[in-house]
Every structure is written in structure tokens, then in C-alpha cells.
Amino acid sequence: MKTIYTVGLVFAALIISTSMDVLAQPQSASTPASAADASATSAPVSGRKADRALRRAVYAAIGRHKEISAGNISVIAKSGAVTLSGTVTDASQINQVAEIAKGVPGVTSVTNKLTVEKPLGGM
């Protein structure tokens, strides 16, 4: 009787251990939950691509204005929100650069942190 009981316990333990291994396996790509997880992980990548493309578009728009030195301007884009920082040579260019950025398709808001570059020997 003890042998049958022991064999039964071993068999039950094997079944439980096998079912635990199956539950611990990652889901296959054909399941809906896995497909949702895959799209959730790929969304930030496409968001970053869109942010980079918007940033390049803002730089290109600023670069078309030869009177503005875009080399000292930093553009950060995140989900359509653009932040401008750095320096320009003239105070009138601060608002001009912001207006240029606002005119770029895909820009939803502009935060302007531009300052006027002080001359090297000036006070």
C-alpha cells in the first residue's frame, strides 16, 4: 500500500512540475496577448523615430534662414512638443526661431529657452 501511495505522490509531483514548466514558457507570437505586447514595445521605437524626424525638420527649417546661426541652437522634440535652447546673435531672432519652429508640420507646442549670445569682451 505504501508503494502505491509513493508512486502516486511521485506521479502527482511530475504532473505539477510539468504544468509549472508549461506555464513558465513565454507565449507564442500567435496569441493575442503576445501581439499586444509586441506592439507596445515597438511603439516607443516609432515614437523616437518620429521625434528624431521632427527634430531634423525643425533644424532644416531654421537652416533655410541664412541670417540665423543654427549651430548654437539645440532642438529637442517629444511627441510634437519642441524645446529650443542655446544662443542666437540678436534678440529679434529669439522669437523668429520660435515662429519658424511653430510653422513646421507636426509641431504642437514650442518652449523657447533661447538667449542672446554675449560678445566675448563685452559686459
Q: What name is given to the CATH topology of one domain?
A: Histidine-containing Protein, Chain: A
Apparent shape: rod-shaped
Please report which band the strand proportion falls in: under 5%, 5-15%, 15-25%, 25-35%, 35-45% or over 45%: 15-25%
Poorly predicted ranges: 34-43
- CATH hierarchy, class of one domain: Alpha Beta
- Separate helix tally: 3
Tally of extended strands?
3
Terminal CA distance: 100 Å
Q: Report the major sheet.
A: 3 strands, mixed
As laid out across the biggest beta sheet, the strand order is 1-2-3
Estimate the helix proportion, in percent: 40-55%
Q: Which class do the helix and strand fractions yield?
A: alpha+beta
Nearest-angstrom radius of gyration? 30 Å
Run of helices and strands:
HHEEHE
Average per-residue pLDDT, rounded, comes to 79
Task: Give the second-level CATH assignment, the architecture of one domain.
Answer: 2-Layer Sandwich
Keywords: Signal
Pfam families: BON
Organism: Paraburkholderia bengalensis
Protein name: BON domain-containing protein
